[in-house]
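Sanity check. The docking grid for protoporphyrin IX containing FE depends on where the pocket ends up, so I'm generating a full predicted complex first rather than guessing from homology. Inputs follow.
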Amino acid sequence: MVAAVPPVVSGGLPVIGHLVEMLQNRETLFKRGYAEHGDLFTIKLGPQPVLVITGADHNRQFYTETDKSLNMQDGYTFLKEAIGEVLFTASQETYYNQRPALQEVFKRERMVDYARAMNIEVQRWLDSLGQSGEVDIAQAMMDLAQAVAGRAFIGPDYEAELGDGFWRQYEAIAASLDPVLPPKLPLPKFRRRDQAKKKINATLSALIQKRRDRPERYNDLITTLLTTPLKDGTILPDKDIVTIFMGLIFAGHETTAGQAAWLIVLLLQHPDYLRLVQEEIAQHVKPGAALDGSMLSRLEHLYWAIDETTRLRPSADTQIRTVEEPIQVGSYQIPAGWRVMVSGATSHHLPAIFSDPERFNPLRFAPEQGEGKNPFAIIGFGGGIHKCSGMNFAKNEMAIITTLFFQQFDAELLSRDIRVVMGKGANRVSEVRVRYQRKAGAPRVG
Ligand code: HEM
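Predicted complex below; grid placement will be based on this.
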């Protein structure tokens, strides 16, 4: 029998419901909801009812109903004013028209170039560390993710081409993100956003023109977007190239930085597993060698650790959709206008799927244990047609960072209380102080 809508979680306040708790600590909110009502419950964000779902079967329905009875774009409205209408923030029609360009950006051949860019930037970072010292890994990963994005998408001259102010302007845009306030209010943060957008537009438009004038000189993201026909046979206009560039930076750099930092933290907190990773690195990666696809494919313990980091410390711990047509979920009928959210805080910790779920145990993903078989059990990279296009990019980046770091340095974690810091985009990590010492015989590569 189809029942009324799912029960509401305790703790809601008059008028605002669970809004403040959602913005400040949704992990506790979702865990409480699961403890009270199981895998389907309701939270209230102001007057807006939201169904929160848990478990691979419900997650599968969420991802396969996206672009059918569930609408993805509404959930990203707050991003539109910041980066523009593109891919996942644009209408479905625009998304499917632009999809060939997205696929071209992440096709296999390009991943080879991206891995080369990652090796260079990671080695530059390691060379800058000197013989020994202390570093905040959280900040270092953020800087590194920006450098990798610059080199991978703009090419070797990215520092001169993007100019000094680019990342400051990007920060002004990111700082303006606000899922609650109307994005056109005359507030200082929205004015700073609009000024930063103008400057970024001017910078990127000039880069596009240079590549249009001399396409033979470049082999980068902009040239790819300038030469890839869309579904309707047209080429992206310049303004959409700017928006796709910004969309990829937005989707990719804080997410990767946060998860790379957590990966290093979790490995340092679990020295027995780190030893397995180091043995594997010693066996398959010659000192001084740049990592390519074939080397990366042999680092299975490292990639299991990356998956375990996605499970335990996801940068993207939730995603949201709007119900366009009434939909049955479990035994409930969810009306149009409701929202639906997936929840890493609960789905990633189900004992029926993950044995001893609170424990860091990457070996759970080894084929003989097989806990990673259901593609909808973990939601950290999304699922279905909109599954993260940059997932392999991000995983390779994390693998190259950790391999070269632990190959060349001994490291000790100094920070004790490391926390997830909820961002308006991706989750970040609090400060991570690490003391390091260059290993004997690990020369600077330069
Ligand atoms: C650890 C790093 C990353 C995480 C955790 C992550 C997470 C996600 C998630 C959860 C989604 C699905 C969103 C939804 O269904 O609402 C997504 C989509 C997407 N991601 Fe990532 N991402 C990461 C890195 C990257 C990188 C490096 C790039 C590009 C350079 C990227 C580009 C994209 C794009 C373009 C989409 C939209 C795909 C579509 O709509 O078809 N991501 N990502």
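Relevant for the grid: DSSP finds 16 helices and twelve strands in the chain.
Also worth noting: The CA atoms of residues 307 and 362 lie 7 Å apart.
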